[in-house]
Amino acid sequence: MTTLISRTDTLTRDALAVLQPGFTGTTAPDWLLRSVAEGLSSVGLFGRNIASPEQLAALTARLRAERDDVLVAIDEEGGDVTRLEVRGGSSFPGNLALGAVDDTALTRDVARELGLRLAECGVNLNWAPSADVNSDPGNPVIGVRSFGADPLLVARHTAAYIEGLQSAGVAACTKHFPGHGDTAVDSHHDMPRIDVGLDTLHARELVPFRAAIAAGSKSVMSAHILLPALDPTRPATLSPQILTGLLREELGYQGLIITDGMEMQAISATYGIERGSVLAIAAGADAICVGGGLADEGTVLRLRDALVAAVRSGELSQERLADAAARVRALATWTQTARTSGPGAEVQEGTAPGNETGRDREVGLTAARRAVRVTRAPGARPVTSAAYVAALTPVANIAVGDETPWGVAADLARLLPGTETGVFDASTGSAQAVLAAAGERRIVAVVRDEHRHPWMAAALDALLAARPDTVVVEMGVPQSAPRGALHVATHGAARVCGQAAAEAITGR
Fold first, then answer.
1. Is the link from the previous residue into 482 a cis peptide, with omega within 30 of 0?
2. 217 or 192, greater pLDDT
3. Would you state the pLDDT for residue 3?
4. Helix (H, G, I), strand (E, B) or coil at 219
5. Where in 197-345 does DSSP place strands (E)?
6. Three-class SS string for 30-88?
7. Three-state SS for 206?
8. How confident is the model over 266-279, as a mean pLDDT?
9. Which of these, 62, 101, 192, 290, is most buried using a 10 Å CB contact count?
10. pLDDT exceeding 90 applies to what percent of the chain?
11. Which of 167, 148, 134 is nearest to 98 (CA)?
12. CA 285 distance to own-chain centroid
């Protein structure tokens, strides 16, 4: 049984307004268009919805034909987490690379160019940047998505990223409040817990979020993490103490609060998405992100009806739901103004993209090159002939996904024709297997977070013992000590990071 809708049903329209659902396919289904006409204010896009910039622009234009102020959101961090370039790899390095360079002007320029490309496609809300301080090097889900482990460094680059992105007319969504960096659990799978005191939280986790608020971040995304020092029973997404008491009242944030994906196991397996959504809005959230894994009309109807029923039963105040919907609509109004009058207006109106004053379309590659760190053993020489690339590949986390290619093989093959590659995992990644496949060719071993994967470290130990001239490329967090004839740390696995690494390997 679903609630009957009329165009004058304010309660139902407000319930729809606070949802940010996804869908499948590269064209907007009829149910989604109908929902937008009935009051749905936001739509979330994922890699499955994107085939090309032209297709994406047509999709967003079709959504705006239903209502011009619809928010079109995407999870486009650049680096390892890309939806815009999900099938080829990102043209922009991720946060860790930008933090390694530590040039806030560069970070601002990278974010602005990324924002302009989103704006060209009609996207006006980006679920980025990650402001998490990666204080636990074993973190399975943040890692290279963080600017680093120093709160002040993370803070200044978070602010620069927000300024650059929003100068392009795309609203930033700073995440994952109040900080997902000190966790050893991925909230896609379970409920992480951070057992530190308030002094540590204020000195570490909250520093970048204070900077984000000062920089004018238009939205903030909550984390599905338990922080007993703030709330011993409910995760941040469902906690009035954290969303209202800390974020709104203590930190003074007045923008939009968006939840992380409600279908993630930390919420769905504990509370269920309907109950979780009601509790999130009651706690102070304004928008419910759902659609990464649940992407159908039934999900929208279930959440809409749960919110309406909660108001009618008195569990959720109508004023709180109306306030949340008003904040969503206020952000939509800002994006409309930015689209028609901001620095990115000439891009979005389709007049001569590429000729905008001060625009640098190659800034991502420039940043990736600057982020590379090369450590050379005595007498080490670059690779100058066809090599064998051994990609020691871990299981990708859900945020990154396994659709996007990564590594150096393609770029190295362009520079050194005849280069071949093999992919090895925990069950196949023995040194013997790599040596047999490589033959006499020089080996380039590509790893991702070696410090988190004992099998990877063991394979490198044996490879370097047998072939000391092996090149090691670390495309994750470079926590392990550099080793190999050449050790190349890229601080991320974006496509441009692979290109920069290939240049370093060959001495180009």
1. no
2. 217
3. 46
4. strand
5. 219-222, 256-258, 288-289
6. HHHHHHHHHCCCEEEECHHHCCCHHHHHHHHHHHHHHCCCCEEEECCCECCECCCCCCC
7. helix
8. 92
9. 290
10. 82
11. 148
12. 20
Classify strands 486-489 and 471-474 as parallel, antiparallel or unpaired.
parallel
Tell me what pLDDT residue 285 has: 98
Evaluate the omega torsion of the peptide bond into residue 228 and state whether it is cis, within 30 degrees of 0.
no
Q: What is the chain's Cα-based Rg?
A: 23
Span 372-394, average pLDDT: 95
Look at residue 392 and give its three-state secondary structure: strand
pLDDT recorded at residue 109: 98
- How many angstroms from the chain centroid is the CA of residue 74? 9
- Contacts of 440 by beta carbon, 8 Å cutoff, 6+ apart: none
Residues classed as catalytic: 188, 260
Which pTM value belongs to this model? 0.93
Q: How would you class 103 by CB atoms within 10 Å of its CB: exposed for 0-12, middle for 13-18, buried for 19 or more?
A: middle
Q: Are the C-beta atoms of residues 19 and 290 closer than 8 Å to each other?
A: yes
How many angstroms separate the CA atoms of 129 and 300, rounded? 26
Q: What pLDDT, on a 0 to 100 scale, did the predictor assign at position 401?
A: 61
Report the alpha-carbon angle 337-48-165, nearest 5: 30
Statement: residue 355 has pLDDT above 60: no
State the pLDDT at residue 322.
Answer: 98
Bridge partners, 444 (sequence order): 389, 471
User: What DSSP designation does 193 have?
Assistant: B
Structure tokens at 440: 């006499």
Distance between CA atoms of residues 214 and 182, nearest Å: 23
| Spatial separation of the C-alpha atoms in residues 39 and 168, rounded to whole Å | 27
Rounded Cα–Cα distance for residues 89 and 370 (Å):
18
Question: Would you say 286 and 326 are in contact if contact means Cβ atoms under 8 Å apart?
Answer: no
Closest CA to 157 of 88, 203, 117, 97: 97
How far is the C-alpha of 236 from the C-alpha of 388, rounded, in Å?
47
**Residue whose entry in the numeric block shows the structure tokens 């071993």:** 445
Cα–Cα distance for residue pair 371/348, rounded to 1 Å: 31
Q: Which residue has the higher pLDDT, 96 or 136?
A: 96
